[in-house]
Design brief:
This protein has 487 residues and is of the alpha/beta class. The chain has helices at residues 2-25, 28-50, 70-85, 121-130, 135-140, 153-156, 160-166, 181-196, 201-222, 241-256, 302-324, 327-330, 335-355, 358-361, 384-399, 406-416, 442-447, 451-454, 458-473, 475-486; strands at 102-108, 141-147, 171-174, 227-232, 235-237, 277-281, 367-370, 379-383, 420-425, 429-431. The protein is built from 20 helices and ten strands. The chain crosses the membrane at residues 32-52, 304-324, 336-354.
Length: 487
């Protein structure tokens, strides 16, 4: 009897609990809260599954956020190209003349990568520039490698001998074999002093500023190229980058001639002038194109937006329930439901929109656009019309104690001269360097990253490559590329 009464008591309590839950679920406010909880939970699971590579997302994973997908595939292709090029029986792409439309230079300094068990970054970088390139594209790109180590680049850089033996670029040069004899000793002494002070990040930045300006000047002095592309050595270029860049540059020329493009005010380009642009950026880190306020609730004015949305919605629900909605619908919208929707759902959804990361939710549409912001000099194409003045400006600033970062100074130069700055999307280059040449920390180096690059699909990119070659060089060049892709 005692056991039976205990069972009956437990059953009664269970019954009471079930009845209480059922009664609670009849209340519209509780149902609305449960729906909100379910939706947010599912969205959170989705965010951790798909937004984990966005550095400006609350779902970013420090463990897997910088996992390499396409860039790893492309690096394998790049190094395979170099290995094949070392064999005498492998057909070579040939070289470009000084009249090629693009002069592209990789700036590199030795990083002693063999101690980390891998090759110098410049190997994969140059390999990615040439791998799967069509002969038509190769003839359009005058390719240089600038070994910027001082005083003896051959001794300081592990890849110097390899590139000299491969003979796959149009020019490889150093300070020692290109500086004018009258100033060589003096310049080398100053550059060596800056380069040797590796503990001083300011000195390293001044050295890299001079390297950058010198590389631009070398392209201007030795070629007739209309465009000067400067690449850092720790990048990977996408398949078809050359044809796509030429296509972008064609679009830039058309953009510059639009008469209503910009009003001629201080620091802003005058309309209708073909050469009123300074550079086209082929790489931009996600941190530069994210929401300005980051992931905080107030940072992006989410609190103000929430109030601006919640108040009209509150009025709409009150008026609609009272005058317009059928009674069968209105009975599901009580005061608690309105409170959940306007007081919780609206601010939570608005905050989640910003906190999920711009690169994840609102990726940039393909194409070229004018942008006054942007970070880093990993891959930039300059307009020859202004390249000489920019080169002089950068080299002079390198001798100034103030120094400065090259990407920031280029923007200052553009603003002072009223020149447009443009960016091409999606990015054609990815930064993969971790071992810094300017004492950048491991964490800082990782954050110079572009999410969209890793989402490239090799097959789609190969097809796009053929279309771009067909558009820029004609059907014969496209067919030649197709034959190369099939072998």
């Amino acid at each position: 009897m005692i056991l039976r009464s205990r069972h009956l008591g437990a059953f009664a309590k269970s019954n009471k609990l079930t009845s209480g839950i059922e009664q609670a679920l009849t209340k519209p406010g509780i149902r609305a809260a449960l729906v909100l909880f379910t939706v947010v939970s599912l969205y959170t699971l989705y965010g951790f599954s798909f937004f984990y590579q966005d550095p400006l997302s609350i779902f970013f994973s420090t463990e897997h956020g910088y996992d390499r997908f396409y860039s790893q595939t492309r690096e394998v292709e790049a190094l395979s190209y170099l290995n094949d090029a070392a064999r005498s029986d492998t057909p070579q792409l040939g070289k470009a003349s000084a009249n090629a439309p693009i002069c592209a230079t990789f700036i590199t300094v030795g990083r002693n990568m063999s101690t980390a068990g891998r090759r110098e970054y410049v190997d994969a970088a140059v390999g990615s520039a040439l791998a799967k390139m069509s002969p038509a594209e190769r003839s359009a790109v005058h390719l240089k490698v600038f070994f910027a180590d001082v005083p003896d680049a051959a001794a300081a850089h592990e890849s110097y001998r390899e590139f000299r033996n491969l003979n796959i670029v149009d020019e490889m040069y150093t300070y020692d074999n290109t500086l004018p004899e009258l100033v060589k000793d003096q310049r080398l002494e100053v550059l060596e002093m800056l380069a040797s002070d590796r503990e001083n990040k300011h000195s390293m930045e001044r050295k890299s500023l001079y390297d950058y300006g010198y590389a631009i000047d070398r392209c201007v002095a030795t070629t007739n190229a209309s465009y000067i592309a400067i690449f850092e050595d720790d990048i990977i270029l996408a398949d078809g980058w050359a044809a796509r860049t030429l296509k972008h540059l064609k679009n830039v020329g058309e953009m510059m001639q639009e008469p209503e493009r910009k009003k001629p005010t201080k620091g802003v380009p005058k309309p209708g002038e073909v050469n009123d642009w300074i550079y086209l950026r082929l790489f931009n880190q996600d941190r530069s194109v994210g929401w300005a306020g980051g992931t905080s609730f107030k940072g992006n004015n989410a609190h103000i937006i929430s109030v601006a949305v919640a108040i009209p919605l509150f009025v709409l629900l009150i008026v609609g329930r009272r005058w317009f909605l059928p009674r069968s619908v209105a009975r599901h919208i009580d005061g608690w439901t309105i409170l959940v929707v306007c007081g919780l759902a609206v601010p939570l959804c608005i905050w989640l929109f910003f906190a999920s990361g711009k690169a994840s939710l609102v990726p940039n549409f393909p194409g070229v656009r004018e942008e006054w912001f942007g970070c880093c000099n990993q891959a930039v194409v300059y307009n020859r019309e202004h390249a000489s003045k920019l080169s002089t400006f950068l080299m002079r600033r390198s001798r100034d104690k103030k120094g400065g970062r090259g990407d920031m100074l280029s923007k200052d130069f553009a603003f002072d001269h009223g020149l447009s700055r443009l960016t091409a999307y999606p990015m054609l280059a990815q930064h993969v360097g971790i071992v810094s040449a300017t004492n950048t920390t491991h964490e800082e180096a990782q954050q110079i990253w572009n999410l969209a690059f890793e989402h490239y699909k090799p097959r789609r990119l190969a097809a796009q490559h053929v279309r771009d070659v067909r558009e820029m060089f004609g059907e014969e060049a496209a067919q030649e590329l197709l034959m190369m892709q099939r072998t």
